[in-house]
Design goal:
Blueprint: H1 14-23, E1 25-30, E2 37-40, E3 43-46, E4 53-57, E5 60-67, E6 80-86, E7 91-97, E8 102-104, H2 108-119, E9 128-129, H3 135-141, H4 147-153, E10 160-161, H5 166-171, H6 176-189, H7 219-227, H8 230-240, H9 245-260, H10 265-279, H11 283-288, H12 290-307, H13 336-349, H14 356-372
Parallel strand pairs: 1-7, 4-9
Antiparallel strand pairs: 1-4, 2-3, 2-5, 5-6, 6-10, 7-8
Helix pairs in contact: 9-10, 9-12, 12-14, 13-14
């Protein structure tokens, strides 16, 4: 993936670059097979003969992901990814385990020995510099990813991979688009099977209810509660996030990164559940949670900007393992995002009184969706609803006899 310009428009100045040479994080990756596709954040490399890792990483959260080729280089194992929370001048060491075809941690003693060697610049010529020009993009994608968010959500062992999600995949709610996504991932990623590691599970995601359940209220009230999910958002925030909005936004970013870069289907379903919940609120953005929705709209703006581009050539070997090769189904008007975005933007753009920041980000989001997806969001024809979609609005039939 070519890195785009920093989100704030300006590449890092030479002074900051010099400081990172001293205070930046080093990621030493030993014995990684040649031609392995390896990514960090929004940057992707193909491993060459002298590659031993990456230097000058800005401290903070990062996501490392890789997929190894077969001996002939034509097939790839499923992508494996893991999050890191890094500190100034830290050295992180991983070594390739040929048997398990994955990066593993070393003993404390070995790690210390290699760390000291990195600090003495012994590996300097074999460490590629982190591309600081694309750091602005990554900052926007990870702005709510704190160490506590990562520790709360990451799987035991830290590894995220679709190879461990096979039993879960069979139970997933499957709309047409999701069925195609599953087929695509299975086809591309299981050409070469990853070794089974049954003791490792998936991420510890929050359970997001698809709808408000019956609570001794009328059918009409229940329908209204499900059309505007503000009360559902409030109960999820109170019960699962101790009222902390940024924790929910952190989970939204974690699941998007694990889905888009780590190719985790479980993470796609979580991202979809969170986006569906937030886009289905109309009271919260206008009145009760306006600042949260300014943040949310900005978060998904950058997610769409980075993740959903039509420029990827799905057959490009360079991009192998780098994006989900999102096919045309993602841009069609029957995707859940079309209906939800259209309704959400209508609520904000047509409100008589609305917060200026929210209005500004809503306009930017609308323009991005129209240019990236080619959607007509002005069209007032009936919304398309996929009946298989568990996140579609619940309309309760009135009992006419009463």
């Amino acid at each position: 993936m070519g890195s785009s310009a920093a989100a704030d428009g300006a590449p890092m100045d030479p002074e900051a670059a010099t400081e990172l040479a001293w205070k930046g994080v080093s990621l030493l990756l030993l014995d990684v097979p040649q031609h392995t596709v390896l990514g960090i954040d929004t940057q992707v490399f193909s491993v060459g003969p002298r590659f031993k890792g990456i230097k000058m990483l800005p401290p903070g959260p990062h996501f490392v992901y890789y997929c190894s080729p077969s001996r002939h280089g034509s097939e790839f194992a499923p992508t494996v990814g893991f999050f890191l929370t890094t500190h100034p001048s830290e050295v992180i060491v991983r070594k390739w385990n040929a048997q398990e075809e994955r990066l593993v941690k070393l003993s404390e003693e070995e790690e210390f020995r290699y760390s000291e060697a990195v600090k003495r610049f012994e590996f300097d010529g074999q460490l590629g510099p982190y591309n600081l020009d694309s750091f602005g993009d990554w900052k926007e994608l990870s702005s709510y990813l704190s160490q506590s968010v990562i520790e709360r959500l990451e799987p035991i062992g830290g590894e995220i991979t679709i190879a461990l999600e096979t039993s879960w995949m069979d139970r997933a709610p499957q709309t047409d688009m999701e069925r195609r996504l599953m087929e695509q991932l299975r086809e591309d990623k299981f050409a070469k099977k990853a070794p089974a590691q049954p003791e490792r599970g998936g991420c510890y995601y929050t359970t997001i209810p698809a709808s408000v359940k019956h609570r001794n209220i009328s059918a009409e009230e229940l329908t209204l509660l499900n059309l505007d999910r503000t009360s559902l958002l409030e109960s999820v925030l109170a019960k699962d996030y101790q009222g902390q909005e940024d924790l929910l936004l952190g989970e939204l970013q974690f699941s998007f990164i694990a889905f888009m870069m780590g190719q985790s289907l479980e993470s796609f379903m979580q991202w979809k559940a969170l986006v569906s919940l937030l886009l289905s609120c109309s009271e919260a953005p206008l009145h009760t949670r306006t600042q949260m929705f300014v943040k949310f709209t900005r978060v998904i703006y950058y997610q769409f900007m980075h993740g959903f581009q039509r420029t990827h050539d799905s057959r490009s070997s360079e991009d192998k393992g780098n994006s989900l090769f999102l096919d045309e189904a993602w841009f069609s008007r029957d995707i859940f995002l079309y209906r939800l975005s259209k309704d959400f933007l209508t609520v904000i753009l047509e409100a008589p009184v609305v917060d200026g920041d929210l209005l500004s980000w809503a306009r930017k989001l609308k323009m991005l969706l129209e240019t990236t997806f080619g959607w007509d969001l002005e069209n007032s024809t009936a919304n398309l609803i996929d009946e298989d979609d568990e996140f579609a609005p619940v309309v309760v039939e009135m009992d006419r006899s009463s």
